[in-house]
Write a structure and sequence with these properties.
The protein contains four helices and twelve strands, in the order E-H-E-E-H-E-E-E-E-H-H-E-E-E-E-E. With 247 residues, it is α+β, with helices and mostly antiparallel strands. The chain has two domains: 192 residues, Bira Bifunctional Protein, Domain 2 (BirA Bifunctional Protein, domain 2), CATH 3.30.930; 45 residues, Roll (SH3 type barrels). Strands 1-2-3-7-6-5-4 form a seven-stranded mixed beta sheet, sandwiched between helices. The chain has a five-stranded antiparallel beta sheet with strand order 11-10-9-8-12, with no helix packed on it. The structure holds biotin.
Length: 247
């Protein structure tokens, strides 16, 4: 599986660029990596803060032979790829906030956004754009006020860390491609579970505007979260339908 990496100075959104290539029939393996994004996209139509020179903003075009139900495997294995890369390149501990945010010291350091389309004909995905955004060093003016309490960077200064940024990006891609080669075998799953920091802890489950107290028990093969409520009932939760607050 070969990757073709294109490096740009600035772009509205690498996910958007790669999506256009996908729709034009481009082959799997194209990666767009940009120094900056002017309209970086997050999940739930949020923005992703993507200032010049301090982060990794990249998107990979994939054409996996998996069903729509299995597309979570791309995002969750990518979270592990990022976690392991930060640990080996920067020697820092990371955690994964279910389902796919990478955290350091209780704050988010990486977000992942997968945008996929189904091919009705084959029943598999037609394409998937896997977008990864990592805050590598501290932006020169710090993080914007709205996210300063919840965001962090791999390195806590704003020194030019271009070299480490390149190594980190390469390591993320290398790690991911290993998992991707046998995605449905879930080789990444033990590493994923190990990093979910709230297993065994009390959490608040927010579901359909209701709040329930529960204990986070386990992650199953489909990365659903098993919780036990105070009345003893157990449930498997999918990331789309709930959000979790660690008490
Ligand atoms: C999230 O945390 O909500 C997901 C953030 C995903 C950000 C990355 S940066 C590269 C790629 N291009 C985008 O516009 N978004 C993703």
């Amino acid at each position: 599986n070969n990757l073709h990496i294109e490096v740009l100075k600035t772009v509205p959104s690498t996910n958007e660029s790669v999506k256009k290539l996908a729709l034009n029939g481009a082959a799997e393996g194209i990666v767009i990596l940009s120094e900056e994004q002017t309209a970086g996209r997050g999940r739930k139509s949020r923005q992703f803060f993507s200032p010049s020179g301090t982060g990794i903003y990249m998107s990979i075009l994939l054409r996996p032979k998996i069903s729509a139900q299995d597309s979570f495997l791309l995002t969750t294995s990518a979270a592990v790829a990022v976690s392991m890369a930060i640990e080996s390149v920067a020697h820092k501990d990371t955690q994964i906030k279910w389902v796919n945010d990478v955290f350091m010291d209780g704050k988010k350091v990486c977000g992942i956004l997968t945008e996929a389309a189904l091919s009705v004909e084959s029943g598999w995905l037609d394409y998937a754009v896997l977008g990864i955004g990592i805050n590598v060093s501290l932006p020169s003016h710090g993080f914007p006020e709205e996210i300063t309490d919840i965001a962090t960077s791999v390195f806590s200064d704003d020194k030019n860390s271009g070299d480490l940024r390149n190594r980190l990006a390469a390591e993320v891609l290398n790690n991911f491609m290993v998992f991707y080669a046998s995605l449905t075998d879930r080789l990444f799953l033990p590493e994923y579970k190990k990093r979910i920091f709230f297993l065994g802890k009390a959490v608040t489950v927010l579901k359909e505007n209701k709040q329930c107290q529960a204990t986070a028990i386990d992650i199953d093969d489909n990365c659903r979260l098993k919780v036990r409520y105070e009345n003893g009932e157990e449930e498997y939760l999918s990331s789309g339908e709930v959000s979790i607050k660690v008490n």
